[in-house]
Structure formats: structure tokens, C-alpha cells
Amino acid sequence: MRFIHTGDLHLGLQFKDVNFSREKARERRLELWDTFERIMEKAIGDKVDFLFIAGDLFEERYFTLGDIKRVRDTFAKAKDVNIVITAGNHDTLNINSLYNMVDWPPHVTIFGTEGLEKKEFTEKNTVIYGYSWDSGENRRDLFKDFQGIEEGKINILILHGDIFNRESPYLPLDRNYLAELGFDYIGLGHIHKPNIISNRMAYCGSPEPLDFGEKGEHGIIEGLIEKGRTRLEFVPFSNRKFLEKKVEIDESHGYLDIIDRIKKCDREEEIRKNLYRIKLEGIVHRDLDIRVEDMVKSLEDEFYHIEIVDNTIIDYDLDRLEEENRDNIIGYFIRAMKEKDLEDSIVRDALYIGLEVLLKGRAGV
Ligand SMILES: [Mn+2]
């Protein structure tokens, strides 16, 4: 039995947590749709038996009736794939939800909200257990009446929940307990970082990353269950990646040097495609004013998306500062630090950071 496991697509997301222009947010929303459609095409092309969607397929706050019809029509094309859905906390299933506004084709199964349910797929010799959320928070004990898996069949569990935090308001799950139940595969949603927990359990992660909290590769899980063995593979699938890069500078670098170093933080084709947060680190010459807005403007044509965080510290003119502040705390501080070893980079950093605080305090008086 072959399957694709996805979830946390968040179709319709507004990207309010990301520093996007309206146009870029719109473009990114279209990319979420594109990735959803590519996953469906892959499921059809690979002739998988099942496509599991482990919650947060869409953002109910922003989704429309037209949108859910588009989802239905996309599913309709994959008529030979059993599509199995458990709703999560962003696409909850209840009387008002869009899930209930359309008629789903027979090969689409949406789990109910009354507790853990079992669905049988006789021709695939497979039973699937699942549960859909009906509200935004959830601490249900889904397994209190669980009768155990069915011997001789492939047993699958699909859930949207949290195996990492027992105090989580988002369906806390006991990982060890789940692992001992004997499922051939447990497909999880909710945590957006893809994570193969064991050879029979995985978070698929968001196939298209949604913000700088979701850095690196994102994709889908492909699985094969054969003769009691489960094989899993994470397959990168996203259009773009969120990436964070540190760029080190020192007192010798001018504005153009810094721009140049930022441009070289990654390969050109990557820079044109991905979403970057650049962290400037190190010591900057005292005459150089780092204005990140200006730098972003200078780099906008090269990068698809760039944000710059300035973590640099200023290289002060120590002799002049000491002279000007002979009788106050700034002067005492410089002298005290000079008595330690200023060649030592830790001492120097401490000096510069301390001076920044002291000089800012003075400016505020
Ligand atoms: Mn989610």
C-alpha cells in the first residue's frame, strides 16, 4: 500500500505574521494553491492508494465557498486515490464549517468529531482511524475506548495534535503510548516542521513554509507499507524556502562591502527564489550608519525577499571617548576594560556593547 501524507497547507493564509507587501502575500497565497495542486497531481501520477491530510488544510477565517469548491474539484480529479482528511484547529469541522457546504466525491473521507472513528477500506485491506477537531482548542482523551488495532490488516492513524508537549491545548498526545498501539503508520499534523519520529510515525510539516519560524526544507511524506514493514521518505516539495543567514562584518567594511557580502550569502539562483532574513553581526566602523531600510532597497532587485536585522556594534573611538568622559562612568568603564586585554575579542565585544548601553543612556537624559 502506497500513500502520501500531507497537512498544514493553510490554504487562504493572509501572511500577517510575515513582513510581506500585499502583492507578495497574494503571490504566496497563490503558491499555496499551486503546491496543493502539485501534491494532488503527484498523488495521481504516482497512483498512490491513499492521500492523508492531517488537518489545517485551509484557514477557515479567510476561506470562501468558492475556495472550498475549488478544493472539491481538485480532489474530484484524483478519483483513484482515497483521500482521507482529519480537520485541525484552523479548519475545524462543525455545523457552520465549509466542509459541510459542499458534497464530496465518494473517494473523499472526512473524519467526524465524536471521538476516534474507524473507516474500513476493504479493497485495500486497510483500516484508518482518525478524528476531526470541532473547535480551536482540544484536550480530549481519544483512546479511552480504543479497542486496539485489527490484526491481519494495515492499520493507520491520522491525527492533528501535539506529541511534544503534554500541557498543550492542541490535542496533547503521548508518543510512547501511540507507538505501542501497533499501527503500521501514524500520520500527524499540527507541528509545521517535518519530522520523521520513527519508521512508523511522522509529522509531514507544512508543504509550503509559512514564515521565518519554518526555515529550511519543507515537503511531504511518501510511504510504502508492504508485508508488515513501513518505509517512509521525506520528499522536499516547496516552491520556496525561508532561510536565515548570518553575515559577519568588521570595522574595515564600508557600505558597499557589506552589500556585497550580503549578496554572497547564498548562490544566485537560491537568492532569486527563496525568502531571506539576514542577520548582520560583528563590529561596524563608527562612521558607517547602517540603515537597514536603505540596504533592503539596494538589494531588492537581487533577492526575491530580503529582511535585514542589524545586530552589529559600533567600533568607538576609544581615546576620544575616554578623554571626553574622564570623570564619569563611561571613562571609568573604558579604563577598566583597557586594563583587561583589548586584543581579546570577548573583552572588546563586552566593551563595545557596554558603551552602546552607556551612551544611549546618556542621550536619553
Ligand atoms: Mn497548522
Can you give a write-up of this model?
- Helices cover 28% and strands 24% of the residues.
- By secondary structure, the chain is of the alpha/beta class.
- The protein is elongated, with a radius of gyration of 27 Å.
- The protein starts with a strand and ends with a helix.
- The longest helix has 24 residues, at 22-45.
- The mean pLDDT is 94.
- The strands form three sheets. Strands 4-3-2-1-11-12 form a six-stranded mixed beta sheet, with helices on one face. The protein has a six-stranded mixed beta sheet with strand order 5-6-7-8-10-9, with no helix packed on it.
- β2 (50-53), α2 and β3 (82-85) form a beta-alpha-beta unit.
- The protein has nine helices and 16 strands.
- It binds manganese (II) ion (MN).
- Manganese (II) ion (MN) binds next to loops.
Looking at this protein, list some descriptive labels.
365 residues, alpha/beta, Purple Acid Phosphatase, chain A, domain 2, six-stranded mixed sheet, binds manganese (II) ion
CATH architecture of the largest domain: 4-Layer Sandwich
Helical content (DSSP H or I, runs of 4+): 25-40%
Rg, rounded, reads: 27 Å
The helix/strand order is EHEHEEEEEHEEEEEEHHEHEEHHH
The biggest sheet amounts to: 6 strands, mixed
- The end-to-end distance, rounded to whole angstroms, is 72 Å
CATH class of the largest domain: Alpha Beta
CATH topological fold name of the largest domain: Purple Acid Phosphatase, chain A, domain 2
Unreliable sequence segments: none
Shape: elongated
Mean pLDDT over the full residue set: 94
Number of helices: 9
Query: Are any ligands bound, and if so which?
Result: manganese (II) ion
CATH homologous superfamily heading of the largest domain = Metallo-dependent phosphatases
Number of domains: 2
Q: How are strands sequenced across the largest beta sheet?
A: 4-3-2-1-11-12
Strand content: 15-25%
Structural class: alpha/beta
Count the strands? 16
